[in-house]
Specification:
about 250 residues, 5-stranded mixed beta sheet, alpha/beta, 9 helices
């Protein structure tokens, strides 16, 4: 197959290696992770990348795959003229863990836990902005609970409700998802140092590239990935199993 892969650059190290080993021909394009701070703009950006891939490049792709989860509704409404494939994941935490089962096993009791990874540390924690500081990237907008509020009340009211229900309280724990073979930049040590300085406890969990590998290799099991038929649009489900679906209507 000839595949277009539009991917968050939080997966840059992993995606580049997996594409080089894929049995398919894969054109890879990254979108900056910090674009997640404005989900509506990210949605428009991804759709633009999809359209450009099919209309402007002159290439005839068999499918477009996305290295994103639901990500604060950033993928809701996306459509494509060829099959569009996306992991059944709320955000990149599940993808980093390699499966929904792996995510639930490590984060099931703390769905809004603070966490980091090599890609997250490199792409989100720019110089002079601490993980626990005021400039940190907020994770709650990719949570199941928050997206249910958006679905029910709209984004503006959801923000107000969330802030009312979740006053800022410092946690004593932070998680690092470590994926062996990709820890080359000192991200783990850097994050470990920041956590120690903040007086927090660091919990390290083992991640897995299985979900991304299957995505790039074209192994699109229905239980793991949503394949959106041409012309259909992605919808959010906001559960812990299906996560996303496609709309029945055009």
């Amino acid at each position: 197959m000839f595949i277009k892969f539009i991917c968050c650059d939080v997966f840059a190290r992993i995606a580049c290696e997996l594409v080089s080993r894929s049995p398919h021909i894969v054109d890879l394009e990254f979108i900056p992770m910090l674009a997640h701070q404005e989900p509506k703009k990210l949605n428009r950006l991804i759709q633009e990348k999809i359209d450009q891939s099919l209309n402007d490049s002159g290439r005839k792709y068999d499918a477009v795959i996305l290295g994103f989860g639901l990500c604060g509704n950033s993928v809701v409404g996306l459509s494509c003229a060829v099959p569009l494939v996306i992991p059944r994941a709320h955000d990149c935490c599940t993808i980093h863990m390699g499966s929904k089962e792996g995510f639930i096993a490590s984060f099931g009791n703390q769905l809004s836990a603070r966490w980091c990874s090599t890609g997250y540390y490199e792409r989100a924690h720019v110089p002079n902005s601490g993980y626990f500081g005021p400039d940190q990237l907020e994770n709650y907008k990719t949570s199941v609970e928050y997206m249910k509020l958006v679905d029910q009340y709209g984004e503006e009211d959801a923000d107000f409700i969330w802030e009312t229900m979740h006053p800022k309280i410092e946690t004593n724990e932070a998680y690092y998802i470590r994926i062996e073979g990709y820890e080359h930049s000192g991200a783990y040590e850097g994050f470990q140092s920041k956590i120690a300085e903040a007086g927090k406890e660091l919990i390290t969990v083992r991640g897995d590239t299985a979900m991304l590998k299957a995505l790039v290799d074209g192994e699109w099991d229905e239980a793991v990935f949503l394949t959106v038929p041409p012309g259909k649009k992605i919808e959010g489900v906001y559960d812990m199993d299906q996560v996303v679906k496609y709309a029945d209507g055009e």
